[in-house]
């Protein structure tokens, strides 16, 4: 039980204390009016059998019954508010806690497979723990408390009737407990089908341009259709697998009511049970069975919600990137025998034994064929991942020991695939510096050559950008991301092919923005077009994950190796014209 409570509260079972206590009180008070009613029934019975008795006590019982109804209403109200408030707060806090935690995991954790699962957990699993806390658990608690109180009371009044009433309970309980394995299997299948369906819908919508242009509706629609029908089948399997067993358990439970009625009739006829006691059992019995049957039906739902909670806890248990040192004052970077593979030591290595020193306040260019590991080197430098072996040293300190968030404060990155958030232009630039003033934002935008086109937008800096920057051109997105980096004012700048796919006018504007960004900083730049890095202090040539050459442009040309070959290739194709 502890495990279940831990799971549905995302490791904060204390959150349940108050709602559970108030629900218990509300349930306790729920029984009191019926005890008064039983007393009144007894008095009426006595009146007809033995003549008028103490009418005052009966009026007091009527009055108390009304008071208890009022008290029950009040307590239920409080319990309900607390339960909902705490349930919704727990899921909102849990989502924020998980989002924070994911930010601190290595970037490799969010592979496309994991991203779908994490999305499902953030949306659906939290909805389920929320529903467990706000609806399912309170109903189960009500049912169980009512059953315990009523059975204690009724067993004391007449144990024969009490036993008859709960005769079916052990069988119902056994069925519920026996369903755990089945629930686990079905829920795992349902969760997988849900993740796959969400992934296929996402893929279908994001890939719509490709789907339309290659007339691929047929095959892609088929993948989506299969994911949807798999999800449908998994839902049906859950209902058809668990529903009938739930009904059998409820039937066993309810059989106690019939057994108790028949036993009561026999005992009353035999003279060993009074009519008022029989009436008490009928009154309280009907109050107990419905909540208990609901509790039994809800138990399997609670089990499935607790599995959703376990998925949340598993994510929360993923180890965050270690390190708590400050960033050293020196900004020189060294790769020392760094090897790396994206899937851990057992998968194919992407970088092999890379050792290199990138001097402070210098520009280092990384060049090499596609797939040689250039972007991977930048990702390791920014500590998106830790090396599989070897070290990346920042100012002489192993980056593994530096707190990742402090490290990132010292690094600005401009990627080739810029991501902008669905927010105002100003806020998108403000990601570079949270507390930036409007003047600082505008000044960064001017330096990044994006002020003019921003001012031409309908609401200037307050214009909302479409998700992912879909309402802007590639060059405009690049310049906004450069403005971000300028605003961040970090001593290290990493550039990943910022101008690779732009027209000459855009490229000139961006080159100018970049030259303002990189002034007097430690810069590492990846460029496919070697012309843009001729002036770099050092050029590293990567091939198949190894540094095969390094030096200045002229030194590398004299070596007449891979760099010289790439240079010749690029300078000769530059003269090509389409006639
Ligand atoms: N997230 C990832 N998971 C697994 N493998 C990856 C991942 N990212 C890159 N790779 C692989 O690592 C190798 C190096 O990739 P990387 O992006 O570093 O090369 P690159 O030199 O920057 O290439 P390009 O010039 O085409 O951008 C490639 O074989 C690539 O397929």
Tell how many strands the DSSP assignment holds: 10
Q: Biggest β-sheet: count, sense, barrel?
A: 6 strands, mixed
Report the average pLDDT across residues. Answer: 84
Shape: elongated
- Kindly, what is the distance between the CA atoms of the first and last residues, rounded to a whole number of angstroms? 77 Å
Helix content: 55-70%
Number of helices: 19
**In what range is the share of β-strand residues?**
5-15%
| Structural class by helix and strand composition | alpha/beta
CATH superfamily of the domain at 2-12 and 106-317: ABC transporter type 1, transmembrane domain
CATH level 3 topology of the domain at 2-12 and 106-317: ABC transporter transmembrane region fold
Biggest sheet, strands in spatial order? Answer: 6-7-8-3-9-10
List segments where confidence is low: pLDDT < 50 over at least 5 consecutive residues: none
**Level-2 CATH architecture of the domain at 2-12 and 106-317:** Up-down Bundle
Radius of gyration: 35 Å
Give the cofactors and ligands: adenosine-5'-triphosphate
State the CATH class of the domain at 2-12 and 106-317: Mainly Alpha
Series of H and E elements? HHHHHHHHHHEEEHEEHEHHHHEHEEEHH
